[in-house]
Design brief:
Strand order of the largest sheet: 1-2-3-5-6-7
Shape: globular
Number of helices: 1
Radius of gyration: 12 Å
Largest sheet: 6 strands, antiparallel, barrel
Number of domains: 1
Structural class: mainly beta
Helix content: under 10%
Oligomer: single chain
Strand content: over 45%
């Protein structure tokens, strides 16, 4: 598994406060596993500002069947992809 360092905005749709689908990098992604909540401590090492961040890790599969594992976090106004694992 290789990690890709990214920090791009993403549109994330939640169902019952859990990620269900997203639009990222010009593609539509379905969440195809059970998302794992990432707590504040995971972001401290790689983020400026630190406190109060939370996010999710989940597998997303696009319309062509390509899958990645995404780490996404909630910023002040929107969601961001922090890592994508192929």
């Amino acid at each position: 598994m290789s990690a890709v360092e990214v920090e791009h905005e993403v549109t994330l749709w939640l169902v019952d406060d859990i990620p269900a689908r997203m639009f990222y990098a010009g593609r539509r992604w379905r969440v195809t596993d059970m998302p794992t909540r990432l707590r504040d401590s995971i972001w401290r090492a790689g983020s400026s500002g630190g406190g109060g961040l939370y996010g999710w890790r989940f597998q997303g599969t696009d319309e062509a069947g390509e899958s990645y594992v995404f780490d996404v976090y909630r910023g002040e106004d929107d969601w961001h992809v922090h890592h994508a694992y192929a």
